[in-house]
Amino acid sequence: MLNDEVSINEYNGLKNVNKLYEDLDILMNDEDINEFTAFVFEVTNLSRINKFNDYSISRKSIQYTIDIAKEIFDKCEPYSLCNNEFVLILEESNIDATYKKSIQFLEIFNNPILINNVPINLELKSSILKYPIHGDKTEIFCNNLSRSLLQEGREIDNLSIFSNSLADVFQKEHSIMCEIFHALNNNELRVEYQPIYNMIDDVIIGVEALLRWDSLKMNIGEIIDIVERHDLINYVTKWVAKEVIKQLSEWKKKGITTKVFIKVSSEDLKNDYFLNYLVKSVEKSDIESSMLGIELTERCIYNNIRSIEVLLNKFIKHGFEISLDNYGTGYNLLRNVFKYPCHNIKIDKFFISNIENDAAYSFIEGVINSAKEFDINVFAEGVETETQFMILQSLGCQVIQGYYFSKPLKPEDISKQLMLAKEQLL
């Protein structure tokens, strides 16, 4: 039997995970209990409530949800998985019955509640699990309780029934994360560079840094998605930046000067951390910030819409060039995107692949004409055929990137191209 010091959550006074493990062990070893259900929920906006209200209000808000949960679920005592995640272990073995009560509980929070006369909007997401279907051992069942809150495709009112396939996904992603971490620390990753070509001046004006992993059994885009979900993307972006700065320094010693664009994620732009890392790394090197550019997607803007304009202006102030990547696939209307500071727009390869289609042609033409008004360069990425090249040229698009001109190249191969381009200019 655990004492209170190790079995109680100090923040809310509820039984904690240690006590949950102990009680589940007892339940699962009871021969008279063959089935039970669990309702797990998370107050997803607790940190935001903390930021804009007194600390006491957030605590009272949590207490309110706990009291309502007890009332709806027949005075069942919740356990606290952490300060904003809770689980109720229910005697009810019928998922449908638990589902109905769960909906009843969640509907109460469809409208703001009053705490100290302050209207508070509590945002909840939740899931239902059943023993032994969703775990026949304590550790497995507890792991699935937390995982269930990450499950996509929720049904009504942010409620879902846990799927065992999610556990398989987590196991696979955990294995991939371990491999990536090992690869980062053992130089198994590398960077290739794809030239960006100015068709008017007939010169390479820069290159895009692309992450490569030779032992990879998945698409690199899928790997990046997994890394983002598991909060390792900042580490990966920093690693790429470090390799690029090292390469730029080597090129500079050989008299080669070019610009390298690095892809960044929404997580990299949530605050100034990556910007500060980049600034300090450039200061410690012998390169200039003008030799670096960052590529962000429309999703980066959408996910950081309140702070992105200020942050992008900081990048520009420090001399970094900004490109908006995969343009046309995201969240912004054409007339809105020009509100954000950037030097270049890269039209997504989907539109380039379909350039002979009237709708894609009109879209590309509109982007090129609008960009000219705002003095923004337009890059066409994913150019693979002469027909695409000729149509883009007729529309006045000056910059292309894609296999029609060059595939991504290893550092030694792109070095030869850049050196040759330098010699041709002499």
* Low-pLDDT segments, ≥5 res: none
Judged by helices, strands and strand pairing, the structural class is alpha/beta
| CATH topology description of the largest domain | TIM Barrel
CATH class of the largest domain: Alpha Beta
Number of strands: 15
Determine the strand fraction and express it as a percent band.
Answer: 15-25%
Helix content: 40-55%
User: Compute the gyration radius: what is it?
Assistant: 27 Å
- CATH H-level name of the largest domain... which superfamily? EAL domain
- Total individual domains: 2
Strand order of the largest sheet: 8-9-10-11-12-13-14-15
CATH architecture of the largest domain: Alpha-Beta Barrel
Mean of all residue-level pLDDT scores: 88
Strand count, sense and barrel status of the largest sheet are:
8 strands, mixed, barrel
Instruction: Estimate the global geometry from the Cα principal axes.
Output: elongated
Tell me which oligomeric state these chains represent.
Answer: single chain
> Count of helical segments?
17
End-to-end gap: 82 Å
Domain EAL: 173-422
Protein name: EAL domain, c-di-GMP-specific phosphodiesterase class I (Or its enzymatically inactive variant)
InterPro entries: Cyclic-di-GMP_PDE-like (IPR050706), EAL_dom (IPR001633), EAL_sf (IPR035919)
GO molecular function: cyclic-guanylate-specific phosphodiesterase activity
